[in-house]
Amino acid sequence: MSTLPKISEAEWEIMKLIWKSNPITSEEIINLLSGRMMWSAQTIKTFITRLIKKEVIGFEKKGRVYYYYPLLSEEECIRSENESFLKKVYDGALNMLFTKFLEEELSMDQIEELERILKDKKEKRISDNREEHK
């Protein structure tokens, strides 16, 4: 996977809105974020400009209004952030991450959900292997 641009926490807030509702105008983004995040309109516009420069979002101008849309999927960005975190904190060792996670107190519901996810993943892997060997 090619390295994706680093998105700051503040930029993530804007990206969440763009992924959810696109195309979206800067006015809509400002209205949705300014009260919740206590950011000025100019601060939000600065974050939008940074995202454009990082080639994470694009825009289309219609009249005097700019409409923003994602150039990268939410899934791509999450995967990149996960890989970055894993490398930074656990030297890329996924098993260490899971070990630390599982040392936490988990409810029965959480344990059952994890078991279900692992079972589904295992079944998919087995199915994929069978398809490869046909």
Describe it:
10% of the residues are buried. Helix content is 66%, strand content 10%. A three-stranded antiparallel sheet has the order 1-3-2. The chain is mainly α. It folds into two domains: 1-92, Winged helix-like DNA-binding domain superfamily/Winged helix DNA-binding domain (Arc Repressor Mutant, subunit A); 104-134.
Rg to the nearest angstrom? 20 Å
> What is the helix tally?
6
Q: Please tell me what the overall shape is.
A: elongated
Average pLDDT score: 90
CATH domain fold name of the largest domain: Arc Repressor Mutant, subunit A
Number of domains: 2
Oligomer description: single chain
CATH class of the largest domain: Mainly Alpha
- State the secondary-structure class: mainly alpha
Total E-strand runs: 3
Enumerate the strands of the largest sheet in spatial order, edge to edge or round the barrel.
1-3-2
CATH architectural label of the largest domain: Orthogonal Bundle
